[in-house]
Amino acid sequence: MEEHRVRIGLLDTQLLTVGTGRTLPHALGDSLNSGLLTLLPGMLEPILDPHHGVIRIKSLSLAVSAAGTADPAHLATLLAEAITRGVDQALALHTPMLVAWPTRESYLAHYVRYRWGERRFPAWCFEEFAALDELTPAQVLTHLVGSDPGLLRVLAAEDPRARTLSLLAGEDCRQLLAELLREPAGTLAVPHLLPGQLTLRITGTAPGVLARHTLELLFGVLARQPSTVPCAPADLLPAVMAVVALAALLTRDPPLPTASPDPPVDPVDRYLHRIGDLPAAFRQALRRAGSTPALRQLLQRQLRQVRDQHTHGSQSDSAPAHAPLPGPPTWTSPRAGCALLLPSLVGHGFHELLDTRQLNQLVVGTLEPGDRNTAGSDPLLTALIPADPRQPASPWPPIPARLVERVHPDARAVAGLPGAGGWSGLLLALFASGLPGLRHSSADYLRRQFLAVPGTLRLTDHEATVELVGPDLAVVLAMGGLQGPQLPIPWLAGRRLQLILGGLRP
Fold first, then answer.
1. Cis before residue 255, ω within 30 degrees of 0?
2. Residue 169 in contact with residue 136, Cβ under 8 Å?
3. Nearest-10 Cα torsion for 89, 93, 98, 100
């Protein structure tokens, strides 16, 4: 049995006495507190012994009969016994005034999800984290992982699809990975990876991109890790980073399909010579993997898997009319709410007047000015409105008067916003025009409530499904028709847009 003890850090007692002198309540309170602090831990230990983890109590209603008793020691005993009975009953009856978590990591995981908007537990359960209120949810996650990396194992087990990571921007992922790298590694662990996890497609070697893929793969490994053999994230990290680093190189320079034996030079060594443009931490992980037999076997298996897939793909003579877009099947972003603009974009024919690069730019232009630089490389927005940066910039055409006339009078102030040739303000105004009761909202309000909303994009052969985490005003969006099937998206081979609002769930 795990050894633990009950410790009481602060005990605040308020006494109201009747028919006594002025000094008696104060002296009685001091004596009573001193007695309770001595008695309570010993009485509570056998009650709390079966319950490991964290217990939070908001209040207990106790009935103590102490008529005519003024002896502080006797009163302390009566109160300690009553508190012990009250806690025991609250644990047995699962009263809403008491909440328990099996482990500290589970408690932290629920606080992280609370900060992301999940309200499964009331705010009073997390009062000890009041000092973190000024941090963003992403900063909270990074801070807590720094003090307790085991939190990631719990999050992965309860969230195998890594929805938590979908709420992080690329820089957030980089900060979180940097925090994990500060944790000293113990015994090097070799993760068991499925074939699909070894054929990652990673476009680019930017730190934020590699960090996101690393965390997603780490989540997948931790989610499948047997609970009987717990493994610290730091022990798995070198192998996971090496797999991601090699995946980025294999995506850029695919292995040549061949049926003949490999040349004398080991193919893994060829890629170890091409790591110059990788961030330092990934270069180090890949070098370490190349010199560690168990990890080197993992890299060889990854290379064979990718080569086999490349060989199989090169033998295909035809592709379906609506083939899935290259890359992973899902994309996540803290700005997934921008997908809510697409029904207005397509419905008003913006795509008939502008090219896809301009469409991407005007959607990015609806965001906060300080967010537009990073949003330009947002993986979800890039997948939703693909734009080749090498494509020559086209001049912005004049905005047709017929589009301006479609803006509701209450939303015309937004339509005049500068940026992207004035098209961004027009799109935001047309979006606001379809929101019952919110047409008068400012651009900042629309951005906070609807555009800066995290979510996931999934592309299938015939649909582009965007599932949002929230927003709080999802009912307004549903009233405006922004829930469920929408118009087909012409530049995505006619895939129909599907909007799923998590905020409508009970």
1. no
2. no
3. 110
Q: How far apart are CA 131 and CA 135, in angstroms?
A: 9
Q: Report how far residue 454's alpha carbon sits from residue 208's, in angstroms, rounded to the nearest whole number.
A: 17
The DSSP annotation for 236-299 comes to: HHHHHHHHHHHHHHHHHSPPPP-SSPPPSS-HHHHHHTT-TTS-HHHHHHHHHHHTSHHHHHHH
How many C-beta atoms surround the C-beta of residue 288 within 10 A? 16
Q: At what angle do helices 207-224 and 150-158 cross, to 10 degrees?
A: 70
Gap between the Cα atoms of 342 and 455, Å rounded: 15
What is residue 98's three-state secondary structure? strand
Instruction: Round to whole Å and give the CA distance between 204 and 151.
Output: 29
Torsion over CA: 482, 488, 493, 498 (sign): positive
- The answer, yes or no, to whether residue 1 has pLDDT greater than 50, is no
Report the C-alpha gap between 294 and 220 in whole angstroms: 20
Distance CA 381, CA 481 (A): 22
What does the pLDDT read at residue 92? 76
Q: What is the C-alpha separation between 146 and 125, in angstroms, rounded?
A: 22
**177: its two tokens:** 């990975």
Which residue's structure tokens are 């931790």? 222
Is residue 322 within 8 Å of residue 460, measured between CB atoms?
no
Q: Report the amino acid identity of residue 22.
A: R
pTM score, two decimals?
Answer: 0.56
How many other β-carbons are positioned within 10 Å of the β-carbon of residue 330?
Answer: 18
Radius of gyration of the chain (CA): 29
Residue 183, C-beta contacts closer than 8 angstroms, at least 6 positions apart: 149, 232, 233, 234
pLDDT digits (tens, 9 = 90+) for 68-115: 666 778 888 888 888 888 787 777 777 778 888 888 888 998 888 888
Which residues, 6 or more positions from 475, have their beta carbon under 8 angstroms from its beta carbon? 503, 504
> In sequence order, which residues have a C-beta less than 8 Å from that of residue 143 and are 6 or more positions away?
132, 135
Classified as helix, coil or strand, 91 is helix
